Q: What sequence folds into this?
């Protein structure tokens, strides 16, 4: 299983250059059964990143462009009356897939954003009072543009908490960006030539193995001290929830598995803590006035807690 994942990650990095850490975190998230919020300026390959992952996993992929006039039924589906048969029929929406790209999720009102909540948490969708289960593998990746806020609808805290990670997609280095340009200009890769490395049954078997990765008592205590510290710090107005602790634990198991280990170390916890917490905590007003960032506060907080042996 680990050999197949190593092959998948290798092929992934061949297609998406300059994002080694984010690719591994994205894969860790889907292995942990979570969802991801991607934030980056236009043109940094966010859509291609998600589409390629879906192809490598051998899963189905749907993309929804979120706009101000998008309705909840455009995501979940609706019931229509069949005049010929004299009955109502349910038309399932694009949410019925393995990997869903919610592109520019903050460009649609809260009512439509909320259409994803039931699916993300309970893996089911209710259409006109009837509930339909989603596939065992269901993964939402939502994107946001950090430089345009006019006409946008910021995600409520409750919905942000549904995402396991928030990843920042930056620009690659000069060498990596040159390699990307070369690939595109030489037509080295196309959208349709990505061969699956896994299938959904193998992927589910890997998930079960990841659930067996050991989280020792000392590691659990270390993890929970970090979460509880966010609620006690004067620099933080609203701390992390219990779901944040669960997210860190599951993500650390997946990261350890990808690192070819069957146990979680403190370094695994440190690696996943920042992407798991940066969208879940709010700084106090005086901390923001001092110019501190969420990233800095998380680093200080984690650094203040003794590392278990």
A:
């Amino acid at each position: 299983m680990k050999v197949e994942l190593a092959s998948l990650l290798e092929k992934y990095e061949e297609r998406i250059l300059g994002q080694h850490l984010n690719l591994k975190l994205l894969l860790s998230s889907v292995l942990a059964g979570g969802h991801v919020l991607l934030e980056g300026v236009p043109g940094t390959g966010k859509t291609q990143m998600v589409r390629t992952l879906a192809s490598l996993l051998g899963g189905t992929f749907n993309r929804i462009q979120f706009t101000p006039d998008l309705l909840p039924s455009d995501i979940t589906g609706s019931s229509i009356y069949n005049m010929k048969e004299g009955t109502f029929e349910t038309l399932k929406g694009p949410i019925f897939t393995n990997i869903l790209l919610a592109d520019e999720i903050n460009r649609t009102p809260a009512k439509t954003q909320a259409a994803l909540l039931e699916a993300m948490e309970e893996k089911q969708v209710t259409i006109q009072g009837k509930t339909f289960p989603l596939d065992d593998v269901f993964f939402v990746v939502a994107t946001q543009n950090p430089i345009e806020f006019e006409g946008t609808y910021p995600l409520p805290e409750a919905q942000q908490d549904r995402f396991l990670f928030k990843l920042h997609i930056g620009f690659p280095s000069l060498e990596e960006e040159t390699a990307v340009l070369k690939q595109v200009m030489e037509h080295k890769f196309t959208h349709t030539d990505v061969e699956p490395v896994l299938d959904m049954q193998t992927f589910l078997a890997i998930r079960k193995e990841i659930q067996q990765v050991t989280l020792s008592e000392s590691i659990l205590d270390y993890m929970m001290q970090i979460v509880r510290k966010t609620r006690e710090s004067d620099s933080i107005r609203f701390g992390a929830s219990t779901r944040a602790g669960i997210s860190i634990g599951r993500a650390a198991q997946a990261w350890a598995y990808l690192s070819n280990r069957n146990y979680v170390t403190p370094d695994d916890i440190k690696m996943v803590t920042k992407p798991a917490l940066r969208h879940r905590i709010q700084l106090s007003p005086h901390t923001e006035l001092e110019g501190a960032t969420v990233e800095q506060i998380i680093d200080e907080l984690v650094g203040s807690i003794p590392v278990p042996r």
Q: What stands out?
A: The two ends are 29 Å apart (CA to CA). The mean pLDDT is 89. Residues 242-258 form the longest helix (17 residues).
